[in-house]
Amino acid sequence: MIADTPGTGSAVADGAEPREPARSQQLAQWLVGLVNNRDYGRLAELRRPSVSERAHIEAGWIDEGRREVFEQVAFLFAVYHRGAAEPSWGYGSLGYAARRIGSSIGRGPDDAGASRLMDRIVASRRPPQRHLQHAIARLRSCGEPPPSWARLADDIARWSDRQTRIRYRWAVDFHAPPPRAARNTRTTTTTTKDTLT
Fold first, then answer.
1. Which residues does residue 107 pair with via DSSP β-bridges, in sequence order?
2. Contacts of 181 (CB under 8 A, 6+ apart)
3. What global pTM score does this model have?
4. CA quadruple 117, 120, 124, 126: dihedral sign
5. Each residue of 144-160: pLDDT tens digit?
6. Is-contact 115 109, C-beta < 8 A?
7. How far, in Å, are 9, 67, 170 from residue 5 at the CA level?
8. Where are the alpha helices (DSSP H) in the chain?
9. What's the half-sphere exposure (Cβ side, CA atoms, 13 Å) at 195?
10. Distance (Å, rounded) from C-alpha 17 to C-alpha 88?
């Protein structure tokens, strides 16, 4: 038997014991389940700043050692999914996701607002909840996918770890050059405009 989805804990073909998904993956599964089950009451609780709400406490049960981080990520997830009918698992780091913030004029490093926001996020010594909330809200308003919720939980939990250098990795992901295909398209477009003028 092959696992239905990565990290769901299904048995593997070699007969080994099923592996339990990482705690951050369990958090993402629980949050996505709230949207799939149309549990708008708990999602609304998660959007409230008071962490004494039952939904916040449930998010923290998934990993007692990272309770505060899981509650923060659950809040961000609920902000992104306000009124959403379909859940988004997201992908990549927050730095990679922030590259998608902007408009047709420019995105990511080419958008002054996105650059300032990213500068504030990576300059923070502690996880900057308010700026992270702003980044998630900007992604939502741009209609762009969020970062991977599981990875976001892991990254925030290791924010101060000097060896993982989360802030640096997010900055690198944000400022990385566009993929080769996108660069070639941009060059071709520019060349075409130049020849028409």
1. 102
2. none
3. 0.79
4. negative
5. 999 999 999 999 999 99
6. yes
7. 8, 25, 27
8. 23-36, 40-47, 54-61, 67-80, 94-98, 112-123, 129-142, 149-157, 166-175, 180-196
9. 5
10. 29
